[in-house]
Amino acid sequence: MGRFIVRRSLSAIALLLATSFLVFSFFELIPNYNPARAIAGRSANQTTVNQVAKKFDLDKPFYVQYANTMKLIFTGQVIDYQNDLNVVDQFRQRFPVTFSLVVPAAIIWLVVALLLGSISALRVGRLTDRAVMVGAIIGVSVPIFLLAALLLYLFAYKWAVFPNTGYTHFGDSPTQWAYHLILPWISIAVLSIGFYSRVLRSNLLDTVNQDYVRTARAKGLSQRKVFRTYVLRNSLMPIVTLFGLDFALLLGGAALVTETVFNLPGIGQYEASAIGNLDVPPILVGAIFTAFFVVVFGAIVDVLYAMLDPRVRLTG
Amino acid sequence: MAERLLDVDGLQVSFVTEDGVVRAVDGVSFTLDRGEVVAIVGESGSGKSVTAMTLMGLTRGPNSRFGGSARLRDRELVTATEDELQRIRGEEIAMIFQDPISSLSPVHRIGDQIVEQIRAHEKISKAAALDRTVQLMERVGIPRAAERARAYPHEFSGGMRQRAMIAMALSLSPSVLIADEPTTALDVTIQAQILEEIRQLSRESDSGVIFVTHDLGVVADIADRVVVMYSGRVVEQGTLNEIFYDPQHPYTWGLLGSVTRMDREPPHRLPAIPGQPPSLVNAPTGCHFRPRCPHAFDKCGEVPPLESHVSESEDHLDRCWLDVSEKRQRREVEDGRIGLGQGPVAA
Question: What value of ipTM does the predicted structure carry?
Fold first, then answer.
């Protein structure tokens, strides 16, 4: 286990560096990319733009800029172009919001997807199964901005059951915190429920035909025992992999549409506006941030796999 | 008189599929007494595995249709409820499957899987069940059983895995043991050991064994009585000697003829029964073997009933219209061997 951690940490560092380098390089390729002008403002004249360029080292070679930016990031001093704010501070402030959005949504979607996937597989071919699968396809297909807007319209505006966007800190009022987040949670959960319940159902149906399930039945075990101990356990592993990645991405800010529509001041919202403005520092920090989570959760998933399936050996 | 354990009478199992109704088992009857080994022989698709699994209710599903009867002592298995079957499985009828690597759960320890079987039917503590498990594993010849009980299936060799499956099947001393091609996935030397295990253990516990196989060598080794199946029907049934020395059905001749013998010159070509088994969806009318039988004649268009034709033995049954003297003549191919032959020889 110790060797595993060391190996993983080393490859994680390499991965984070590579990601940051790649993302940074993309911006070199964008035509008409002129951050100096973006910072200076539209009405600035050429002299001001040149001064800005000098100030931010934007006239230096690409690799020098990269090294400088990375140094700024790791010393926590990097500033964004748009609003002159400290990016790392912004991330730190906004992370609890994203966390509050993602974690409960993930719990909801896991529980519901497990239930629906199981019910579907147990009643395969019957009406319940078909209804759930149709619902799942709809859930997966509806664009999230449409779903979010629809939920907002119906439940916050028309029927005024939930508040109309905004975020309340948990510390200020737990009930308000939850109250504001229910619709966003649903928006995120619907897509994942649709996806995960289908995956689980498919895995369950495959597992149910395995020889060892037949043996379990031949032993005289009850249907429920056979399902729980043999069928479900062996079907969960692919879900663990998927979930690890999904969760990591979401923590890194992948729920940016939801955050924007519901006006939640999370990481996703910040990254979204940065992308819109080609504001490199937040995008870079966001990429590194997300990559970090992906690596960590990737390692966790691998460890879980080794725990769940004795045939798997931990590799670095 | 040994106790009659199983009485299968006219068992029918069909599966409704997109291509039509597959009549996998089409009126199969046989019996099993305590202490005897009955081998069910046939090629793939003959219905032998479906018959065996139906006895335990493992073929039930939304597409299966059943008919006939299979009685375990005085209880009807075909129409038994799922609850009744759960109690019977493992405790009164147990099964050993063909491929132990896929038949055992890869993520649970071997010992745990056996313990689970025991505790599903008996109220004893985990520790007591584990003790019994270790004893069982020792009895089937697994060395260092206490250690090995904590191992996973993939850490065992094929023969050891099968022994573990046997231990699991016998853990509750069932009266009927069904072995579905237990040695097919093993190499020949291990095969001999496993057969010996099964024979010995069933003798010790005085259970009846149904041994499903396609291998006549295994049949000769272990069976007391033989049931030959073809295309969903029993085509011949009798004691081991009757089947091997006085076979009454052309299919049986074909099976026997296709075995190469060590005590004879090797044949130029391996003898095989020409043709393919018929489709179970659109089975030929009359005798199912007719299309491949060189001895077929016009009466074969009618389904031959399963009857005794050999006067000395009323339990030796077969489904063939030919009369006994004809059969005894036709089944002799070159140098006294038994085989399917070419057909009626011109006088």
Answer: 0.86
